[in-house]
Amino acid sequence: MNAAIEISNLKKYYKYGIRGIAVKALDGISMSIGEGEVFGLIGPNGAGKSTTIKIILGLLRPNSGECRIFGKPVSKDAKKHIGYLPENPYFYKYLTGIELVSFYAKLCGMKSEKATAAAEKALDTVGLSDAANRQVGLYSKGMLQRAGLAQAIVHNPSLVILDEPASGLDPIGAADMAAIVTRLKNDGKTVLLCSHMMSEVEKLCSRAAILCSGKIAAIGKMDKLLEIDGRVRLDIDGADAKTLAKISEFAASLGANVVEKSAAKISLEEFFKRTVEAGK
Ligand SMILES: Nc1ncnc2c1ncn2[C@@H]1O[C@H](COP(=O)(O)OP(=O)(O)OP(=O)(O)O)[C@@H](O)[C@H]1O
Ligand SMILES: [Mg+2]
């Protein structure tokens, strides 16, 4: 698998105030996200997730380290292949949904007619067709979020970066968002998903990284991250309560059929809490 995003030893300090006080936002992070992968980037508030994303997008420069997109340094050309939903999307409120999304399509180099057709399709994908001719200023928070997603996918990018895509969405909207991410994955796109919704990340991502105070506290395959060391689970078909009590020794002799043997797991939510606690 080729790398869609390759980050090595990124460090980022922000300076603010007249004294130029420095905040260490990223403290040497490295990771590689393969093409076609849905990768979760999670961590507590202020961990450095949005900073990482902005560096990948070329919106911020790191103090040191390197970021490559599809094997090349971040450039204008590389950015054409990226769709981005910012964490707090802000749109010009007098444009209608269709005008807004067409505008972004044109920014990505599409001609007028093609841009309108692509915008209609993107708005349909995010469930905003009915509100396409309404001004964006009249949209609800969840509708704005959907419009943000539509602009992120309108140019059919190979890499889609979503910073808090489910923020402000109702449960149905969140499920719709998850379905769109699944569709992107099935279309072979790479998705970097940054979210505080652990259940979505657990369901959608094949790998994830947990950022804590600008460092990677854990990274790996979702299955592996959530395994409990040294424990296995037996899923046994046809066993009653009595059989279960004696299961470890007598399963075979009692005629119970062991159909699956897999590692016992904790939820991503629990793993997240433990990792953050351990890093304090
Ligand atoms: N422009 C800025 N100037 C100064 N400090 C900043 C700036 N942007 C971010 N920071 C600081 O950098 C750190 C990382 O911020 P970042 O926005 O990357 O976190 P995050 O993981 O995206 O958090 P959240 O989950 O709240 O969105 C925080 O301490 C934040 O205060
Ligand atoms: Mg953020």
Provide a compact summary of the structure:
The protein is of the alpha/beta class and 280 residues long. It has a domain at 230-266. It contains eleven helices and twelve strands.
Protein architecture, described:
The chain has a domain at 230-266. The protein has helices at residues 49-56, 76-79, 97-107, 112-125, 141-153, 171-186, 198-204, 222-225, 241-245, 247-250, 268-279; strands spanning 3-16, 21-34, 38-42, 64-69, 72-73, 82-85, 159-163, 190-194, 207-212, 215-221, 227-237, 257-265. Helix 3 packs across helix 4. The longest helix is centred in the middle third of the chain and has 16 residues, at 171-186. The strands form 3 sheets. Strands 6-7-8-3-9-10 form a 6-stranded mixed β-sheet, sandwiched between helices. It has a 4-stranded antiparallel β-sheet with strand order 2-1-4-5, with helices on one face. It starts with a strand and ends with a helix. With 280 residues, it is an alpha/beta fold. The protein contains 11 helices and 12 strands. The model has no long low-confidence stretch (mean pLDDT 88). The structure holds adenosine-5'-triphosphate (ATP) and magnesium ion (MG). Adenosine-5'-triphosphate binds at residues 14, 16, 23, 25, 43, 45-51, 87.
